[in-house]
Amino acid sequence: MANSYQSNTNTKLLKSFIKNFESSTVLMNTVSKQLVNDFDASTGGDYGAVSMKRPAQYVPQRTADGDVTGSTNPVRTGKVQGEVSANGYVTVYVENTQVEEALEADQLDQLLAPVAEDMVTECESELAEYMTRNAALTSGDADTAINKWSDIANAGALFKEIGAPSGRKFAAINSFDETTLADLQTQLGVNPDVNAAWAGAVVKERFAGFDQVLTTNNLDEYTSGNPGTGITLASTPSATYTSYKDTYQMSLALTGLTATTGTLKAGQQLQFASRFLVNQRNRKIVRKSGAGVPITLTVLEDVTADGSGNATVKVSGAAINEAGVNGAFNTVATALTAGDAVTVLGTASTAYRPALAYCEGFVGMGSVVLPKLHATDSSVMNYKGTSIRVHKFSDGAGNKNRYRFDILPTFATFNPFWGMQLFGT
Question: What CATH number is attached to the domain comprising 336?
């Protein structure tokens, strides 16, 4: 019986791919990652959803004699639902002859480097889109470019004032923002022990509450809709934590849009000028220069107004306001109410590519643990929360043997208020 070295080839392919994959990542290094094995087929789209517990919060009680009989902190733990990518698998094909030639010439890294880089770009672009459209906070003016370090510091200050959790925090800006800030640069924060892409992306470390300020060319871009003016809430939404604890998403009934043609696009942010954000630990109003900071919520799906100028929009972020010990998860000082004015941030029909500021616990990205395909040449490696499969197969019609590399990403939002779209001030 002839010897088979196929398993050795697959192992070499995976090890070389992983090395190049890891050295190309930037945004993926900054979010929580985990492998996904099981799904609840009853929810979460075609593939179902994986659920994770949201951390509990409490309201400390004050009493004269310490007697808290009949008044206990309610524990209402929410579940975060992680969704499998709506775009499905990330796959690259490589012809078998290319692999054989690379192995013979000891050039496997050179062959697989562009494969890994392109798959990372695809994954990080989708991650950036997900983060942008799930970030509830905003810092700066959507029509003003980042042009000074205080723009970054403003985002860091908002995180501090809103009671963001301990742990790593990041700002991700584009390359031209870095150019604008270059004249103001006081230090570089490159760590020679990290991967090449990360080292090249770190602009500054330990600045204004951020562990790193990074550059990336994978930031999301969206074009704003043209909803019209004079928009208000058509009805009063629920303000209880129980209503939103699993998704932190709201469906808002709006009225006053331009009839038939008024539109809102995913990524746009809605502001409620009379409803102020609260610190999510001490529940005090977040103030800047003495004025309350209005809550913003981010549009998740495109909508168009009906013939009466009405539309129901799905948004990321929940305006929660409850009294007493039930207010452990409050996000606003007073609840949204029918008739509240709605301001759509930015200019209509304009392309925006916001920078991002976020806590490590803002979103999570994982991947489905992929099964081996029915063949002798299928291998899977699970590495730092990413499941990568390499599989050899034949194209009978094309008379070719090929390898394919696969990743199936998943995404989850832990708290929309730990992420923000970042602009200049």
Answer: 2.40.30.240
Number of separate domains in the chain: 3
Domain that holds residue 277: 222-349
Q: Provide the 3-class DSSP secondary structure of residue 100.
A: helix
pLDDT-derived band at 190 (thresholds 50, 70, 90) equals very low
Q: Where are the alpha helices (DSSP H) in 79-213?
A: 96-104, 108-134, 149-162, 175-181, 196-201
Strand partners, 94: 403
pLDDT by residue (tens digit) across 122-131?
999 999 999 9
Question: Predicted confidence band at 268 (pLDDT cuts at 50, 70, 90)?
Answer: very high
DSSP string for 103-135 = HHTT-HHHHHHHHHHHHHHHHHHHHHHHHHHH-
Which residues are CB-neighbours of 146 under 8 A, at least 6 positions away?
Answer: 140, 152, 173, 177, 180, 181, 355, 422, 423, 424
Q: Stretch 172-176: mean pLDDT, rounded?
A: 89
My answer on whether 342 and 228 are in the same domain is yes
- Per the rule left: phi > 0, alpha: psi between -120 and 50, beta: everything else, 87 is alpha
pTM of the shown model? 0.86
pLDDT confidence of residue 192: 44
Cβ atoms 286, 277 nearer than 8 A: yes
What gap in Å lies between CA 123 and CA 102, rounded to an integer? 26
- Dihedral angle, C-alpha 280, 281, 287, 288, nearest 10 °: -90
Same domain, 215 and 263: no
- Looking only at the bridges linking them, the beta strands covering 294-299 and 269-276 are antiparallel
